[in-house]
Amino acid sequence: MLIEILISFFLLVGASFALIGSIGLARLPDFYTRLHGPTKATTLGVGGMLIASATYFSVGGEGLSLHELLVSLFLFITAPVSAHLLAKAALHLRVRTRVPVPASFDEEPQGRGR
Amino acid sequence: MILQTAIYLAFVIMSLAALLNLWRLILGPDAPDRILALDTLFINTIALLVLLGIHFGSAVYFESALVIAMMGFIGTAAFCKYILRGDIIE
User: Fold this and answer.
1) Considering only CA atoms, which of A109, A111, A110, A91 is closest in space to residue A101?
2) CA contacts within 13 A on the Cβ side of B89
3) CATH number of the domain encompassing residue B69
4) How far is A13 from chain B (nearest CA, A)?
5) Each residue of A43-102: pLDDT tens digit?
6) Is A94 left (phi over 0), alpha (psi -120 to 50) or beta?
7) Does B90 map to a domain?
8) Which chain A residue lies closest to B64 (C-alpha atoms)?
9) Number of domains within chain A
10) Chain B partners of A78 at a C-beta cutoff of 8 Å?
11) Do A41 and A17 touch, CB atoms closer than 8 A?
């Protein structure tokens, strides 16, 4: 009973965070603010759901369930990388923003990790 | 009973989130907006697969969740590379 309440709590918290991230993606004014919603809130939401799943399968199944750890570790590593790449692509395209794009962006030295 | 209700509620919330992402994917004024919406859809799909695994009580969904996570990251990285350099594999 207590375990069920715990799993339900984590499931609902995770789903709510994912919904908040998607609302941010749909409603915020420009691209660079929109980038905040999915990269932080949605990743945290999926993390909460994976905690719920790990609890469920550790209690009900045989032994400790560690598949979820793999998925969440992968997500937590790749989310900042893809956000960085997206921000760089948007700066390259000079996407319309509320604050001007820094002029020095395209004058970086070429061929060094770019 | 509590768990079943929570699972159905979470399904509804995640579907709503996916619909909002789809709205941004269709509407998005620029290419990075669409890529970001697609990336978020991938992450929401992982959450939905995990939910489905709890609902059916089966652990086979984790492999597909892991594969979808990898495909999502590689797809996002390839799209961004294409915008940045005009080519994916140089």
Assistant:
1) A91
2) 1
3) 1.10.287
4) 9
5) 999 999 999 998 888 887 677 777 788 888 999 999 999 999 999 998 888 877 777 666
6) left
7) no
8) A71
9) 1
10) 69, 73
11) yes
Give ipTM to 2 decimals. 0.89
- Smallest CA–CA separation between B52 and chain A, in Å? 10
Is residue A75 included in any domain, yes or no? yes
Q: Do residue B84 and residue A92 have CB atoms under 8 angstroms apart?
A: yes
Name the minimum distance, in Å, from the CA of B26 to any CA of chain A.
11
Which chain A residues are Cβ-neighbours of B14 within 8 angstroms?
15, 18-19
The region of weakest confidence among A65-69, A98-102, B5-9, B42-46 is: A98-102
A94 touches chain B (CB under 8 A): no
At A38-51, the pLDDT tens digits run 889 999 999 999 99
H/E/C letters for each residue in A38-104? Answer: HHHHHHHHHHHHHHHHHHHHHHHCCCCCCHHHHHHHHHHHHHHHHHHHHHHHHHHHCCCCCCCCCHH
Instruction: Show the domain range for B37.
Output: 2-85
Question: Is A21:A38 a contact under the CB 8 Å cutoff?
Answer: yes
Nearby residues of B24 by Cβ (< 8 Å), 6 or more positions away? A25, A26, A34, B33, B34, B36, B37
The structure's pTM equals 0.86
What 8-state DSSP symbol labels residue B86? S
